[in-house]
Design goal:
heterodimer, A: 4 strands, B: alpha/beta, 6-stranded mixed β-sheet, 4-stranded antiparallel β-sheet, 39% helix
Chain lengths: 402, 262
């Protein structure tokens, strides 16, 4: 068994494709993808923030203070073109034609309506599908400021002291007293999504080499020679299985370490307090516990990938069979982020979901180690059953000589 | 001495096979199974080379795969020095060296690493592996390319490496499935010399071939299989007599025709 393991590992380490999937991809590609995504996201937000939008206000003279606020706002520029806008329809046509980015229609009696005890309805015309909905928020904010001034003036005219305005307008204030500490909050947010990254990587670390170790052997004609040596099929399967377990774990470890390094690099070059606080709550033991939890999962994936791969006749066929597995792994992870899904004695027996839930609890700092024990038991049982299945398949002529 | 008696092997027909079935003429096919080997018997003693002959699809490869223990016979026995290797496959694997046209090498390992790997799997000791490898590399003139990766070898080099891999553990019986197919004259000659060497050492060799000139050159005995059934098992002289011809090709054709007509 050990000889099979040594040889498989040596061969895999000489395979550029495997090295790319197991080592290079986790080390470089993921941080690069995240960096590119972060860069594009930041650029888009910056661009949106700096963009100046042209506008038109109809009947602006009836709310001069508001009109001035919009005029002096850094994100807005008054339309200076030759077209005239007098109705809502004309504003809509102007936005559609691209002459203006936004049109605000004020009723001609904007200030007077308030005096008569009625609410004034203002309309903002813009294209909401262009991802510039912050336009509306900005106008709403300016309108609110103006509304607050009018409100205060009105209450004052009724002889109400300024100190009482708050009590009249908002008689009840609901204040949230959160018992969750910073770590628990962080765990709920980050912990739910970390399995999306880690679990598929564990699978990927096993699937690609599995194709080489199973279907690849068949295609190259080496499987038959291997089956004719006096080692038992159980030893053969175990040798291959441990190889896959190694690559799967290595891939995960490399990813976690690589991500840690990249976060450290990012922190060294930027003042990211939130990330600093977030990562300071995690102890090395937590990371180790996450790593340990991924071991039985790696065992499940390794035995499953090996069973599928040995059934396939060719490399290509194995890739086709394993593709649904790569997609299917997300399903139990999605279950783990459903509302009210918690790690319990029952959920500890749902493969993949249980590990995803445990990772979340570890990051939150609320993990119950009894359930972790149950997860180990459940995953070890499943991995064992799958391994036994693998051995059975390695003994079946219709599988080996399809 | 290896003795094969009453071997039978059938394979379950796949749905696709049943669907695409062209005719019902093949006597080896029934509703659910293809009876690849129906009754095959022969023997090969120490120092003998047995040529296994038969047309394409006769059941030669299935027979040799059963001898190599890759496939388990449905019926029959295969004994090496009195031990039934059907019942004791691990013993069979230690006793047999097998090589077929489709067996490959690990491309990313060097020739030496390939041979050493199989020697280790056969439980050989480190010192023994080194001396045995050196012996085989000299015998097969392989020293020039033993440190090359198998994926970079020519067909001839690969076949030499495969031969070395098949016999590294000093098997009691060597089984070769069309070992010279697709090889150039030089490499074919190396294979022939190697078989002669095994014969001289007293190792029984069973090899399937379509080249009757190789049979004339190497074989003491001949076994013929047609449609999964043994048609002939005897010495080369008996083969010529039964086939009514001094020409091996003609004798072979006559034996097949005669059996077919019967």
């Amino acid at each position: 068994m050990f000889e099979v393991y040594k040889k498989e590992l040596k061969e895999l380490l000489r395979d550029k494709k495997t090295l790319m999937f197991v080592v290079l991809l986790p080390v470089l590609i993921f941080p690069i993808i995240f960096a590119v995504m972060a860069f594009i996201g930041t650029q888009a937000a910056l661009e949106a923030d700096q963009k100046v939008n042209t506008y038109v206000i109809i009947n602006g003279e009836y709310a001069p203070e508001f009109t001035d606020k919009v005029f002096y706002h850094k994100s807005f520029e008054l339309y200076k073109g030759s077209k005239t806008f007098n109705t809502i329809e004309e504003l809509k046509a102007g936005v559609t034609a691209g002459d203006i980015d936004m049109g605000i229609y004020l009723p001609s009696n904007a200030e007077d309506t308030l005096d008569s005890g009625e609410q004034s309805k203002w309309e903002v015309v813009f294209n909401d599908a262009k991802s510039i909905n912050f336009l509306f928020d900005r106008v709403k904010e300016l309108a609110q400021e103006y509304s607050d001034v009018l409100q205060a003036e009105k209450l004052k005219s009724f002889g109400i002291e300024e100190s009482s305005h708050k009590a009249i307008l908002n008689p009840i204030e609901v204040v949230k007293v959160d018992t969750a500490d910073k770590r628990e909050n962080l765990g709920e947010k980050i912990g739910a999504y970390l399995p999306y990254l880690l679990i598929p990587l564990v699978l990927m670390g096993a699937t690609y080499p599995a194709i080489d170790l199973g279907a690849g052997e068949k295609e190259r004609g080496t499987l038959e020679t291997l089956l004719l040596t006096p080692i038992t099929r159980t030893e053969l399967v175990l040798g291959k299985f441990i190889t896959l377990l190694t690559t799967s774990i290595a891939s995960t470890a490399i990813t976690v370490v690589s991500m840690g390094c990249w976060v450290a690099v990012a922190l060294a070059f930027a003042d990211l307090d939130f990330i600093k606080t977030a990562f300071s709550t995690l102890a090395v033991t937590d990371l180790l516990m996450i790593f340990v939890l991924l071991l039985p999962l790696a065992a499940i994936f390794s035995s499953l990938a090996l069973a599928i791969s040995i059934y396939a006749r060719t490399f290509k066929e194995a890739q086709n069979y394993l593709a649904p597995l790569n997609m299917g792994v997300f399903f139990p992870i999605i279950i783990s982020i459903m509302p009210n899904m918690e790690l319990t004695a029952k959920t500890a027996f749902i493969p993949v979901t249980n590990v995803a839930l445990a990772i979340k609890d570890i990051i939150k700092g609320t993990v119950d180690y009894t359930f972790v024990g149950l997860i180990f038991l459940a995953t070890a049982l499943i991995a064992g059953a799958l391994l036994a299945f693998c051995v059975k398949w390695f003994n079946r002529e219709d599988v080996l000589f399809r | 001495m290896i003795e094969v008696a009453g071997l039978k092997k059938r394979f379950k027909l796949t749905k696709d096979h049943k669907k695409n079935k062209v005719d019902d003429i093949d006597p080896r096919e029934d509703k659910d199974y293809f009876h690849s080997v129906r009754d095959v018997s022969f023997r090969c003693a120490e120092g003998e080379v047995l040529g296994l002959l038969g047309p394409n699809g006769a059941g030669k490869t299935t027979t040799l795969r059963m001898i190599s223990t890759a496939l388990k016979p449905d019926e029959g026995s295969i004994t090496i020095d009195g031990n039934d290797i059907v019942k004791k496959p691990l013993l069979g694997r230690k006793s047999i060296g097998f090589l077929s046209g489709s067996t490959g090498l690990y491309g990313r390992l060097t020739v030496k690493e390939n041979i050493e790997y199989f020697a280790k799997l056969h439980g050989m000791k480190k010192s023994d592996i080194a001396s045995r490898c050196d012996e085989l590399f000299t015998l097969l003139d392989m020293h020039k390319f033993i440190d090359k990766r198998a994926e970079n070898l020519s067909t001839g080099m690969k076949q030499k490496a495969n031969i070395a891999r098949a016999v590294v553990h000093r098997p009691k019986v060597v089984v070769l499935d069309e070992p010279t197919t697709g090889l150039d004259i030089m490499t074919t000659q190396t294979v022939i010399e190697f078989i002669k060497g095994l014969k001289a050492q007293g190792t029984p060799v069973i090899f399937s071939t379509h080249h009757l000139d190789e049979v004339a050159l190497l074989c003491d005995r001949v076994a013929v299989i047609n449609e999964g059934v043994s048609c002939f098992d005897g010495t080369v002289e008996e083969f010529k007599q039964t086939g009514n011809s001094e020409e091996l090709n003609q004798a072979f054709m006559n034996i097949l025709t005669e059996k077919h007509n019967v």
